[in-house]
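Q: I have 309 residues here and want to know how they pack in 3D. Can you give me a structure?
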Amino acid sequence: MTLLLSPNAWWVLLSMLILGVASGMIGCLAYWKRQSLMSDALSHAALPGVVIAFAITGVKALPILILGAALSALIGAFLVQWVVSSSRIKEDTAMGIVLSVFFGLGIMLLTIVNRTGGGNVSGLDGFIFGQAASMVRSDVYTMGILGLLVIAVVYVAFKEWKLYLFDPQFAKGIGLPSGLMNSLYTGVLVLVIVIGIQAVGVILMSALLIIPAVSARYWTHSFKWMLIGSAFIGGGAGVAGTLISTMGKGWPTGPFIVVSSSAVFLVSLLFGARKGLVVTAIQQRMQKRSPRALPAEAEKSMVKEGGLQ
């Protein structure tokens, strides 16, 4: 099947692989930072920036649209932090507010631009649900370069990310600037979101960030292997979803990528080595059957009481 792909489809396949790997890695950071909802908020917050960038320039050039999306998403991230620091509103509530307000603003602006006569031709509607098939080679180059940049940032600063996420007090004690790490985290999160919204869409982009990380968590307790597993699942879902979408005319790539990653999540939920439902049920059943599986403290207390001879 893959040998029958057109040259442009091969480029799209490569870009989806890079996007999936980058999304999986950043989603792992967001998972441990307990900000999974932030990815959803910022992906929706990027929509007004895309529309405004097109309205100002009149050109559907991916670098320009990415710049507009990035600025809009960064404003959304700043507003979340500002609302939390200056009021009694909790972070998840602030994210929900930013998500709904920015997405509503984006839909409103998109409707206005569409009525001017050039909006529908521009294909801006594709940024809502994604339209990977419409990407040209220059778009793939842009996505690929920025995606590799995100992967490099996570790989090079792996030790710093571990300290920043799991022991911020120790990281601060050894001189690791928490403000810089927080800004870097927000920057790479925004970057991977804005490079993926054309292919996956603002609505589904958060799923590509969250699902691979959660799936990988069921297989390991190690941050390193969870990061690798999340990248592998994200990249695999990107490739699988792209290949499936080529089997039918007009089939959207983004939804198939999300469905592919969801299938991996279902397998992980049931059979994951770490607290998979089926594995956990088997372990509990074996513990009930085997008296030697009892905890040491329970055995000692039962021996004292004459329960075990």
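Q: Anything worth noting?
A: The two ends are 66 Å apart (CA to CA). The chain has a mean pLDDT of 85.
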